[in-house]
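The following block was generated as part of the benchmark described in Methods. Ligand: pyridoxal-5'-phosphate.
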Amino acid sequence: MINPEWENLVKNIHNHYHQDFVPLHEPTFGESELNYVTACIKTGWVSSVGSYVDGFEKALAEMVGVKRAVAVVNGTAALQIALKVAGVKENDEVIMPSLTFIATANAVTYLQAIPHFVDVTERTLGLDPLKLDMYLSSVGSMQNDVLINKETGRVIRAVVPMHTFGHPVELDELIAVCEKYHLILVEDAAESLGSYYKGKHTASFGKVNAMSFNGNKIVTTGGGGAILTDDEALANYAKHLTTTAKVPHKWAYVHDEIGYNYRMPNLNAALGCGQLEKVEKFVEAKRELTVFYDDILSKINGVTLFKEPIHTKSNYWLQTILLDDSMNRDEVLTYLNEQGVMSRPIWQPMHTLSMYENCPKGDLTVVESLNKRIINIPSTPLITSK
Ligand SMILES: *Cc1c(COP(=O)(O)O)cnc(C)c1O
């Protein structure tokens, strides 16, 4: 399998990054991050109160084009609360791709709801709206305006598409399916800051949506996440729930329900304020990296570089190789990693994990196929001025 073309790829990656070991994705910081974090420390307000959280939320909401953003400790917590305020209840089923990071399924489970896995399309690496429509028409039955799963008797309440590696899913078609079956749309936009569908930013389509700012994402707050929505009342409720549901008062400690201590610390928000200023540069550099890889990979048999779907502008968070059926994924992974080029397969599909193998699911042919054929290669954006 490994021929001079693969050796050429490895050589070019080392030259591009000037590193003996090239990681998959590293964060990039500059002057503003240092300045904001230092200023934050000097004020002493590093924890649960401070102006950087407000600043981060405002800048993020503006960038995404939604009315409100609520900053929280991580993307998983953001998803959990987004689903909760959007209306997911105990014992509800929530549709999601089996090809996702574990957090999507876990967030649903934390609400005592049940993940329900469906297939993806090779066009986007995300949910397949056509297949979903056909599946729901066979497995579901509309009763009093809610969709009942005929096999389990439970309500199918929501759909959580995930924009894999930053590539937006077919949102118009998915929204039509959600309307047809009265399902709530919640985007898992953890990977897609800076990605647009038909000119509109991801995380602005669902009723409530979630993002992550973990260390490996396109922008990081160290650890962090955000809930995004156009609905002021739901945003206020999300803020309330994620800040221990404390009733605002100068000195009294009164809480009106069981909330969560999910707020993003001010210190992390300060880092995030610096990072948000660089989103456009990061996206530009990642898109240039795609051109760089495409040039090399187009000369190698048996592989293609995954490109943004039609009608979208992707942030290309993680560069993705698709192997032909003739190629052995683990052989390629072993070779690249041995050569100091960090590469990894996609997450093990949710329906094959022991905790989730008994969850309801549809046909997952494409997930099974893609699982054996996807490899992510180094994707750190090299920006000139920091
Ligand atoms: C990163 C990620 C999350 C969760 O984010 P954390 O901040 O790590 O909790 C959720 N969903 C997807 C698809 C992700 O990639």
